[in-house]
Amino acid sequence: MGQSLPNNDRVETTIPESSLKRGLKARHLTMISIGGSIGTGLFLASGSSISEAGPGGALLAYGLIGIMVYFLMTSLGEMATYLPVSGSFSTYGSRYVDPAFGFAMGWNYWYNWAITLAFELLASAMLMKYWFPHTPAVLWSAIFLVIILGLNLLSVKGYGESEFWFSLIKVVTVIVFLIVGLAMIFGILSGHDSGFKNFTVGDAPFHNGFLGVLSIFIVAGFSFQGTELIGVAAGETEHPEKNVPKAIRQIFWRILLFYVLAIFVIGLLIPYTDPDLMRGDVAVSPFTLVFEKLGVAFAASVMNTVILTSVLSAGNSGTYASTRMLYTLAVEGKAPKFLTKINKNGVPTNALYLTLAVGSLACLSSFFGEGQVYTWLLNLSGLSGFIAWLGIAISHYRFRKGYVAQGKDLSALPYRAKWFPLGPILAFLACLFIVLAQNYQAFSGNVIDWQGVLVSYIGIPVFLIVWLGYKFKHKTKVVSYKEMDLSRK
Fold it and tell me: What is the pLDDT of residue 427?
């Protein structure tokens, strides 16, 4: 994926990350990122993706997004091995672009995961009601909130270990699914006798043509979000110059392999015309449908358990990432100072409590009235992940330009991304396209759906207001390449 130097050529990093502790190993780092990106997007949304665009369209969309994520991960890897800090995108944006840009990036990413936590809490309650339909949803949300709090109060090593096992459950499930599915396709197991015919049903493999691929392109982008968690976790990783590149290589190929192969298997075993693919609930997850074809009893309950683990894993990782981002903003003077408090385990407790408080309040808002407040909060965070990806591409482009402008030797980088400058430019353009096209339907009618536009794109003006507001208040300027801070602490 990129070029790593031999151990004896690596430049040692000495990042005094305050009282945070470097307790994460390479296997933790890999699973944290996998845990943030493999979840409901694969287990539930993959079915509706195939229904919308056909098996070929879904494969094309996920493959294209995979290429974009490849470039983003190598860009992030180059910066994260050079400067492994928990502030990640915020710190890189401040140093290599503009302090105001870094400020907006940090708060944007914190808000994104704080609101996503609310979504995960609600999802966990809905999943539990599958078994306990008459219990109040707020009870299960509260229980899962306490579990996430407990896991994040552990030392970073304890957090990494819990996330490793959560993610491993998902990985094992996907691997078993792929083995079973391929065995059914080739006639080794019963339950499927159509061979490759489902790729020719109706107008498959490309249903709805270009617009079908476009709609899934956007869905796929949301599904892959979470891979950037490695940039935040790098600040608490042992030997980041060695472990970050290793984890990046493994993460990208594993996630792409899981998504592409899973969609291929589902597309062959279940025709895209199957109405169950569109429903998106646990009882008819495409994984559940495949296991039921094989004759596995309690397939829905098994998948419900796995998806519940996925939700807990995503909430756990998201809380970790947003807490570290908020802590770093406070250390840099861009958030209240009381958020810098760290306990004996190296956990920024006040930042953790504030993150969980915002997430739980957003979650509670869904239980009152029509849930409109929660809906708007969720819509506001919809573009946040893509904005973070845009920031990674911009920061890496400017970092490399500044590095060369200051006469530094590229061979001294601990990890060097391939395809520069093509990589970050293509990643930037792809992300920008997704951001602008995410609700193209609002513009496709005779009359523009202004409410749909506002709901879908509200995150853009909010980000610009935070960015430009800080810029005007503090009179910040875009950092010149010659004056860029390229120190490693």
Answer: 92
- Tens of pLDDT, residue by residue over 46-64, are 888 888 888 888 888 888 8
| Per-residue pLDDT tens over the stretch 82-98 | 988 877 888 999 999 99
Instruction: Go through the chain and tell me how many residues it has.
Output: 489
Across 325-349, b (16+ Cβ under 10 Å) vs e yields bbbbbbbbebbeeebbbbeebbbbb
**Gap between the Cα atoms of 364 and 356, Å rounded:** 12
Is the CA virtual torsion 150, 155, 161, 164 positive or negative?
positive
pLDDT over 50 (residue 292): yes
Token pair in block for residue 194: 């159509």
- Residue 37 to residues 167, 369, 381, 457: CA-CA distances in angstroms? 10, 32, 16, 23
For 129, the token pair is 């009601």
**Among 413, 485, 407, which Cα is nearest to 75's?**
413
Answer for the pair 10, 241: CB distance below 8 angstroms, yes or no: yes
Q: What's the rounded Cα separation, in Å, for the pair 66 and 343? A: 39
Query: In angstroms, rounded to a whole number, what is the distance separating the alpha carbons of residues 348 and 372?
Result: 32
Considering only CA atoms, which of 346, 345, 340 is closest in space to residue 327? 340
Q: What is the pLDDT of residues 330-369, one digit of tens each?
A: 988 899 999 988 888 888 899 999 999 988 888 887 777 6
CATH code for the domain defined by 2-9+24-437+448-474: 1.20.1740.10
